Amino acid sequence: MEITEKEAGKLEVILKAAQKKFAEFGLAKTTMNDIASELGMGKASIYYYFDCKESLYEAVISKEQEHFLQEIQKIIKPSVSAKAILKVYSKKRTVLFEYCLNLAKLNGEGLSNCLPFVKKLFDEFGQKEVELIKSILELGMTNEEFAPIHAGVEAEFICTMMLGLRQATKYKMKESLMTKDDYKILNSNMSKAVDMFISSIEK
Amino acid sequence: MEITEKEAGKLEVILKAAQKKFAEFGLAKTTMNDIASELGMGKASIYYYFDCKESLYEAVISKEQEHFLQEIQKIIKPSVSAKAILKVYSKKRTVLFEYCLNLAKLNGEGLSNCLPFVKKLFDEFGQKEVELIKSILELGMTNEEFAPIHAGVEAEFICTMMLGLRQATKYKMKESLMTKDDYKILNSNMSKAVDMFISSIEK
């Protein structure tokens, strides 16, 4: 739909409140009422933009995805070495997931039981991340930093490893949210894994 | 309790049936009746050995753990290179988890929501696995295959990576059980990760 500037501002505010509530209670336990209360608005104002909770959730995830990918795009510059980009990427990934709380949760619940549209959102994000890493690896081959490799296969591998390290951290954690110590261990494992990976493909 | 040979045989049969049923339905959804029906016994025969479902489950997990650790112990021989042992370990781990279905499930549900006694079982197993890997790394240092490293820290890292790769596979899978293709991808990722790890500590 065409929206005015005022409406766009309101949409932004709704998305922010929804992001907060979904991050707090998850998709299943957040109601449109919770989000309306957070905003001090009537539910009707939200329904003007979103016909159901699920489409609002989808918009929140899309916004977080976009933010994540844009931030990562910023560090990919042909003038910087691919190795350095990969290292920054693995660090920034953890920091970004702290902002993208719903994306991170999506990234933490497992797919076998989730709703089909949530599964689709995750798959799309996963594919975009693989493409992103693939482009970094290709840059590294062009720069002759890396030996000739199957960039797509290696990108898939490093993404699986990063997903896995995050899952392992979440798996072992004692609280329901990651603590500072969990982040510290995750960051150190990520760096170690990425360094090992870089050594394995270096020229 | 002291048990006769006949009783030991019966215990073995109960554990086997329980292992099958728990693997099929999980701890929460398996009843003592399910296990008794599987055996064609009355429930009283099971209660003679186990006072509740949880203690039977604990016995099943202990049995699987023991089997797992014994099988792994078999491949640790001072005459074999530590590198070779690590490689075999990563392959054998996947195969063993197919037999140790309840241990594998325990290893796949996340700890934040599980019962305290299940968490304890997992933690114990995790610690034993770290110790096992640590002893392989120490062997490698004695053999002068590996550079001087903090064996405990590195063992913790490789265990986290293996747990993570398994979790990532489970996370992405479409079915509720791992398919042959899932195992193929997991095995290939495991080998790759272990090879990378070995290269990173080689002398």
Description:
- The structure is a homodimer of 203-residue chains.
- Chain A is mainly alpha-helical.
- Chain A has helices spanning 5-29, 32-39, 43-49, 53-75, 82-99, 101-106, 116-142, 151-172, 180-201.
- Chain A has 2 domains: 1-51, Arc Repressor Mutant, subunit A (Orthogonal Bundle), CATH 1.10.10; 61-201, Tetracycline Repressor, domain 2.
- Chains A and B meet through helix 8 and helix 9 of A and helix 8 and helix 9 of B.
Summarize the topology:
The structure is a homodimer of 203-residue chains.
Chain A: H1 5-29, H2 32-39, H3 43-49, H4 53-75, H5 82-99, H6 101-106, H7 116-142, H8 151-172, H9 180-201
Helix pairs in contact in A: 1-2, 1-4, 4-5, 4-7, 5-7, 5-9, 7-8, 8-9
Q: Characteristics of this structure?
A:
homodimer, 203 residues, mainly alpha, Arc Repressor Mutant, subunit A, Tetracycline Repressor, domain 2, 2 domains, elongated
Class by SSE composition of chain A: mainly alpha
Please state the second-level CATH architecture of the largest domain in chain A. Orthogonal Bundle
Overall, the morphology of chain A is elongated
CATH H-tier superfamily of the largest domain in chain A: Tetracycline Repressor, domain 2
Number of domains of chain A: 2
- Low-pLDDT residue intervals, each spanning 5 or more residues of chain A: none
| Main pleated-sheet profile of chain A | none
Terminal CA distance of chain A reads 52 Å
Helical residues, percent of chain A: over 70%
Radius of gyration of chain A: 19 Å
Largest interface: A-B, 29 and 29 residues
Total count of helical runs of at least 4 residues of chain A:
9
Element order of chain A: H for helix, E for strand? HHHHHHHHH
Approximate strand percentage of chain A: under 5%
Number of strands of chain A: 0
Q: What multimeric state do the chains show?
A: homodimer
CATH topology of the largest domain in chain A: Tetracycline Repressor, domain 2
